[in-house]
Amino acid sequence: MTCFKDDILQKYLDKETSFDENLTMDEHLNHCTDCAKRMEQLLVRAMRIKKLIHSLGDENKEESIKPLPLVFAGKKAIIHTKNGWNPLKRLFFGVGAACLLALIFIYTPKAYPEKSQNVLLMQQDFVEIDANKPYSEQETTITVIDPDGNVSYSK
Amino acid sequence: MKTFEEIYSENYTKLYRVAVKMVDDTDNASDIVQDVFMSLYEKFSGGTAVLYLNTWLYRATLNKCLDCVNRQKRYSSLDSAPEDQPENNTLEKKENKALVRMAMSKLQPKERAILILYSEGFSYKEISDSTGIRFSSVGKTLARTLEKMENQLKTQRYDLF
To answer: Could you tell me the pTM of the whole model?
Structure first.
């Protein structure tokens, strides 16, 4: 396996590599002394640079928090850090939405069952069976119910 | 949900530290942080919500610092008086700080921002959110910046590395 570049090693040092990358790198670093050595150098470099940059802020340690400017004093500005929604605003919108839904529900005309468009045929065979006649000549009554509910018979 | 005062006292020092490292001037840094909080206050007074407060604060601070650095560069020829250093610092410490400042001044503003946030212990995701650099590029940019910084420091004083 080829050796890793500095940026990948740096990512590994900063624990920013993915689980799969970690496995691959662990395996590689176990037998590649060059990469292990380079990583050690990068670690030292990062630590030194961090320390040097930190030293820039050292002289300002005594800097205390400046008092809140007068503009802000006495004003309770409420800041929403999570999702930016004011709970009051959220409540207002929630109640508004609920009212709207209720109005829609109340004023929507009730849905009645649709009128059937089908014609219903009811066939009643062999009202009176004549044993002397064949099947095709037996009397049959057909009841027809149209969509308006009118009933008619035919024999 | 926090009050403005709470946010101010929680974040003032952190933002100030970043600003000092960026602009290398305590007065300017203080002004920048005050300015950031003023913008935040105006934002909230106007009814605008901030989704990720910390990211917003750092981003605003860095942007204002970059503006300040650019302004300083523009007027550097007019105002080149050296800043007074605190007296309790040893000569060596002063020298090191001057070297670090010199090395950092050679970096691009974004690289400087990355380095400062990295030194503050930010994760790559936080660095990406605060500087606007793509998350996938943070690792590469950081490695390159560290290398540049190392080379700068080595050129100026070999024993620092």
So the answer is: 0.62
